[in-house]
TrEMBL record:
<dbReference type="InterPro" id="IPR009381">
    <property type="entry name" value="Trehalose_catabolism_ThuA_prok"/>
</dbReference>
<dbReference type="InterPro" id="IPR029062">
    <property type="entry name" value="Class_I_gatase-like"/>
</dbReference>
<dbReference type="InterPro" id="IPR029010">
    <property type="entry name" value="ThuA-like"/>
</dbReference>
<dbReference type="Pfam" id="PF06283">
    <property type="entry name" value="ThuA"/>
</dbReference>
<protein>
    <submittedName>
        <fullName>ThuA domain-containing protein</fullName>
    </submittedName>
</protein>
<feature type="domain" description="ThuA-like">
    <location>
        <begin position="4"/>
        <end position="221"/>
    </location>
</feature>
Length: 241
């Protein structure tokens, strides 16, 4: 069983009635429900939000998490650096991390990949097509080609990230832009997947194809090993003999 913690900023849902109506259980609630729907007994989910003590991510929760999903947007600066360090160390030790939509600007992704993660954007409710460029990848299994999202915020290149270890999806938009929308990274022993669809103004996380991507990504990112941040001990000559 994969233990998943679904982290959501939960600011739009509390402050904007239209978002609360669209996501009555929060975006984090919709994401967690989709994982349970598709993975059943193969997953155990919990949710955590920014307003909770330690943002709902104390050390015991992190220790009991195989995969953490992260959605943030307008309160990145409010995330405590101590929590970021905790998550960072857990990823290096093997915990999986799914960073969603505007989480590209999160402290945790910027720290793990070492760049600004900036991009072009426009929110006019344009159609997005999510194209599979690596159909053999586990995250792409059972995913239609393309995924059609009727209305979504546009994200466009240049996307300031390192070259992904694996690129699974690219998106195209009605305005002509393209975007690397499904990117895999390895940091330490941990696997990271960034997936861009999911603006709060649209019901994207109810869409079956999007839920399939997230469920696949959770299974892909689940730890192969889990432990502390790898050390670099002194090694005297002939230590292995």
């Amino acid at each position: 069983m994969v233990r998943v913690t679904v982290w959501g900023e939960n600011v739009h849902e509390r402050n904007e009635p239209e978002v609360a109506e669209r996501y009555p259980d929060g975006m984090h609630g919709a994401i967690a429900a989709g994982l349970t729907e598709l993975l059943g007994d193969g997953v155990r989910t919990r949710t955590a939000t920014l307003d909770q003590p330690e943002h709902g991510l104390p050390q015991d929760v992190i220790d009991a998490t195989d995969v953490l999903t992260w959605w943030g947007h307008i309160a990145h600066d409010q995330v405590d650096d101590a929590v970021v360090r905790r998550v960072h160390d857990a990823v290096l030790g093997g915990m999986g991390l799914l960073v969603l939509h505007s989480g590209h600007y999160s402290k945790i992704l910027q720290r793990l990949v070492g760049t600004t993660c900036s991009l072009k954007w426009r929110n006019e409710g344009e159609r997005e097509l999510v194209w599979t460029v690596n159909p053999a990848h586990p995250i792409a299994q059972g995913v239609p080609h393309p995924i059609v999202i009727p209305a979504q915020e546009m994200y466009g290149e240049h996307f300031d990230i390192p070259e992904p270890d694996e690129l699974v999806f690219i998106s195209s938009f009605a305005g002509g832009e393209v975007f690397r929308s499904g990117c895999c990274f390895q940091r330490g022993a941990g696997r990271i997947f960034y997936f861009s669809p999911g603006d709060q103004d649209y019901p994207v996380y109810y869409q079956p194809e999007i839920r399939r991507v997230l469920a696949n990504a959770v299974q892909w990112a689940a730890p192969r090993t889990r432990g502390p941040v790898p050390e670099a001990p002194n090694a005297p000559r002939d230590w292995f003999l």
